[in-house]
Amino acid sequence: MTSQYTCDDLIFDVEKMTVSTTHHSRSLNYNECLLLKTLLDNANQVLGKEALKSAGWPDTIVTDSSLQKSIQKIRLVIAISNSVELKTVVGVGYMLSCNCAERVVEAESKSHPQPKNNKWQPTTWAKLVLGLASAVLLSASALEFTKVTNTRLVSYLNPNYEIVNLDGKKVLRKHGTEIPEPVLEAIKSSKCDCLFFFGRNKDTGRYHISVHNKASHRSETYLVEQAMFPQLAKELINEKP
């Protein structure tokens, strides 16, 4: 049975339902733990919402809203890592990105978490690492990153990137990257007080859009293809203020 998942700097302890690094530790509930384990078992693969709901709440009917809340919690938990990203694939589901996911097997371990009011067996440890830092964190660091020089704060922006102002909305993009018209108009129409990041992977042709809500401090990352722009535009416009 799988007892550990290792990848970069995160340790996922299935028994204690915690995710930790050298300096930080955060906890998950039972259903979130099942979700994270499923995402790790299928690292770098897109999982549909129904598959995730079945994995996180076995034999129970749950809403998309419940799944979304748990996904947001997992994102907050794995944010303690320097190399973690849980992506939203518009119209499909979610994908956990890992540079390298490795499993360690122990003969007498169990790989499934148990509810905390149940008696534990000698169990598994799980480690996880999710590679590819959130583009929202990149945008936040590029927009807001400061360094202390004596008593002054000096703003820093990577010279390969630029900040575009779209009707009061700040968008971080790499120089020369064109923002398609549907996405451009959706950002302008969004009522959210957000920071936006827009990028494109030249190898895959996919677009990477991240939204950081300054009020709630939550972020949403979208990995989309051009055909998904209309649906993405709706989600950006409906982004909560």
UniProtKB/TrEMBL annotation:
Keywords for this protein: DNA-binding
Keyword Transferase (UniProt): no
Listed SMART domains: Trans_reg_C (SM00862)
InterPro entries reported in the protein's UniProt record: OmpR/PhoB-type_DNA-bd, Sig_transdc_resp-reg_C-effctor, WH-like_DNA-bd_sf
Pfam families linked to this entry: Trans_reg_C
Annotated SUPFAM superfamilies: C-terminal effector domain of the bipartite response regulators
Segments forming domain OmpR/PhoB-type: 2-98
Gene Ontology terms describing biological process: phosphorelay signal transduction system; regulation of DNA-templated transcription
Annotated DNA-binding residue span(s): 2-98
GO molecular function, one term: DNA binding
Protein name in the entry: Transcriptional regulator
The species this protein was found in: Vibrio tetraodonis subsp. pristinus
